[in-house]
Amino acid sequence: MDWKDFFRKIFLIDLIKGLRLTFSYQRPDAIYTEQYPLERPPVAERYRGAPRLNNHPESGETLCIACNLCSIACPENLIVVGWARTEDRKKRLTTFTYDLSRCMFCGLCEDACPVDALELTQDFEIANYSREGMIWDRQALEEGPKPVRYTR
Ligand code: SF4
Ligand code: SF4
């Protein structure tokens, strides 16, 4: 060990340098606190969050054609599509369940959907108090999450 290293250790130079860096971030102008939930933070454009089953904007009819491709594409096998045949032999969506507690938000179901009916939105407030509450039915998927908005 040379003298330079010796004095460096004796006078705790590295510690002082570290503390200087730490305290440089304690300046009022360097502090940033997100005010969530009062202010919702913007999420990345490509963020994949709460699923939504889209309806036609004018007719309000579901865009889903009950093809089951999303369910087949899902590696977790968590989507269950229910359907029935109409009198003219067309498939019509009856039920749709999506178990959010098992979802890894990979987006494969969204990519598989041929009519853009299933979409992973930017909603991130999907916490729930029970496991059952994490299983969304067709109505919940069409309406989307309804988080409590806090105001002062
Ligand atoms: S995002 Fe991935 S894991 Fe979740 S339902 Fe879609 S395919 Fe399955
Ligand atoms: S892939 Fe799309 S259209 Fe087909 S069942 Fe799933 S959500 Fe409906």
Question: What report would you give on this structure?
Answer:
With 152 residues, this protein is of the alpha+beta class. It has 2 domains: 1-32; 51-143, Alpha-Beta Plaits (2-Layer Sandwich). It is 24% helix and 16% strand. It contains 5 helices and 5 strands. It is elongated. The relative contact order is 0.18.
Low-pLDDT stretches are none
How many runs of DSSP E, i.e. beta strands? 5
Text of the CATH class of the largest domain: Alpha Beta
Biggest sheet record: 3 strands, antiparallel
Q: How much beta, percentage-wise? A: 15-25%
> Bound compounds, please?
iron/sulfur cluster
N-to-C terminal Cα separation, in Å?
Answer: 61 Å
CATH topology type of the largest domain: Alpha-Beta Plaits
Structural class: alpha+beta
Overall helicity: 10-25%
State the main characteristics:
two-stranded antiparallel ribbon, 152 residues, 5 strands, binds iron/sulfur cluster, 24% helix, 3-stranded antiparallel β-sheet, alpha+beta, Alpha-Beta Plaits, 5 helices
Task: Note the topology.
Layout: H1 3-10, H2 13-24, E1 51-53, H3 69-73, E2 79-85, E3 91-99, H4 108-112, E4 118-120, E5 135-136, H5 138-143
Antiparallel strand pairs: 1-4, 2-3, 3-5
The protein binds iron/sulfur cluster (2 copies).
Briefly say what this structure is:
The chain is an alpha+beta fold. Helix content is 24%, strand content 16%. It has five helices and five strands; from the N terminus they run ααβαββαββα.
